[in-house]
């Protein structure tokens, strides 16, 4: 919840869902699209406290259709779904260069 709250303070107040087909669906306008059409603005990696294989990423996204800022949670590693893998593989990274090495998608 701390990560989600942090992103909310940055303006990412809406929800973005990952469909079974690997599309991202904006809950504001209802538009579903492939990952290349969304803008990744923030990314925070999480690991389970008791199980390091329990890995997830909280994505701060901007909807290309309506411009709403929202978050989606995807799992990666051994617990990641095919849909989550599609999103992570095809999501363009539009994070600012001035954030340093923080959680680059290629990590």
How would you characterize this protein structure?
This protein is α+β, with helices and mostly antiparallel strands. The chain has one domain (2-94). The chain has 2 helices and 6 strands, in the order H-E-E-E-E-E-E-H. It has a 6-stranded mixed β-sheet with strand order 3-2-1-6-5-4, with helices on both faces. The chain is globular. Mean pLDDT is 85; it is low at 98-107.
Summarize the structure.
The chain is an alpha+beta fold.
Report Rg.
13 Å
Work out the strand percent: 25-35%
Please give the number of β-strands.
6
Domain count: the total is: 1
Given the C-alpha coordinates, what overall shape results? globular
* Uncertain residue segments: 98-107
Distance between the termini: 22 Å
Order of helices and strands: HEEEEEEH
Short key terms for the protein model shown above:
107 residues, alpha+beta, six-stranded mixed sheet, 2 helices, 6 strands, 16% helix, 35% strand, disordered C terminus
SSE layout and pairing:
Elements: H1 2-9, E1 14-18, E2 23-26, E3 32-34, E4 39-47, E5 55-62, E6 69-76, H2 82-90
Parallel strand pairs: 1-6
Antiparallel strand pairs: 1-2, 2-3, 4-5, 5-6
């Amino acid at each position: 919840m701390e990560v989600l709250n942090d992103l909310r303070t940055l303006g990412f107040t809406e929800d973005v869902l990952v469909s079974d087909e690997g599309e991202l669906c904006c809950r504001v306008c209802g538009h579903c699209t492939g990952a290349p059409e969304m803008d990744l603005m923030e990314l925070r990696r999480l690991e389970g406290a008791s199980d390091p294989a329990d890995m997830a990423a909280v994505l701060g996204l901007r909807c290309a259709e309506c411009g709403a800022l929202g978050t989606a949670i995807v799992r990666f590693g051994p617990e990641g779904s095919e849909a989550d893998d599609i999103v992570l593989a095809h999501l363009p990274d539009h994070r600012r260069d001035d954030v340093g090495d923080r959680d680059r998608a290629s990590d």
